[in-house]
Amino acid sequence: MQATAVQPLAGASPADPRAMAPWTLQRDYRLPEGIEPPSHRLGRNGVTAAALLEGAALDSLLDRFSARYPGGDRRAIASQWSKWLFHAWLSPLIATWLIQGDSRQRAPSDWGIRFSPNGQAERLWLATTRDVVAHPARSAFLESLTLGPLAEMIAVLARHSGASVNVFWSNAGNLVEHVVTRLVDHPAVPPDQLAAAQAFLDAARIDGQRNRLYRPVTYRLTDEASEPQRLRRACCIRYRLAEHDYCENCPLACRSARGDLGNLDNRGEG
After folding, report:
1. Per-block mean pLDDT, blocks of 10 residues, the chain (270 long)
2. Which listed site, 1, 152, 203, 261, has its alpha carbon 20 to 30 Å from 111?
């Protein structure tokens, strides 16, 4: 496996007070290419997590995002929107945790997302305050994130879109697994951090509850492919949008090819 491509961190100099913010990477570490470090400027199109969880801001963002899918199914639109949200939000948090063990969590008013004018999530925003609402053990970071902020956000998404929570958990799990896999060969990730992340994704239950991010994808060997095929456990329902077909990781396309698709009205939404 090739080493992970990295890019310079767009952060602050040591003399800048922002360098003391909880997310700042230490010892000149770098985030993988494609993962934006958090910003300390919310911007005119930024929305705090507190506002997203209240719902009104979420409805407005979904309405703006849906303009690219005229007449589209709101459930599928929300699913596509959530993929951008999870990438902007979760990718830098998980990468920073893996690289340097930062497991601190902030209040919903102290973090948020910067959006494009059309409602697409672009970058995580973190306030410069050092205030945290939780500081779980390093090994418990993913568990705390899953049972807390992520569960809250997914509940709101489901309530305001009509899509099953399973759709959003699948999108989040697909993203988390992808980030962890990308960082397997990152030179700054300690083996114990990586082992903790992989153990979490392999745990069916956490803190006595169902782990909604349990094995979100599977890898299947086929006679036709030289490498294992990566398949999501649940469908993201983007097929409901005329602009999209099945994604390359869709479990439905695989089942359809075998002739055992089943009930088409419940693809990944059970």
Report:
1. 32 28 48 88 94 95 97 97 98 92 88 97 86 73 95 98 97 97 91 94 95 95 82 93 90 62 42
2. 203
| 3-state secondary structure labels for all residues of the chain | CCCCCEECCCCCCCCCHHHHCCCCCCCCCCEECCCCCCECCCCCCEEEHHHHHHCHHHHHHHHHHHHHCCCCCHHHHHHHHHHHHHHHHHHHHHHHHHHHCCCCECCHHHEEEEECCCCCEEEEEECCCCCCCECCCHHHHHHHHHHHHHHHHHHHHHHHHCCCHHHHHHHHHHHHHHHHHHCCCCCCCCHHHHHHHHHHHCCCEECCEECCCCCCEEEECCCCCCCCEEEECCCCCHHHCCCCCCCCCCHHHHHHHHCCCCCHHHCCCC
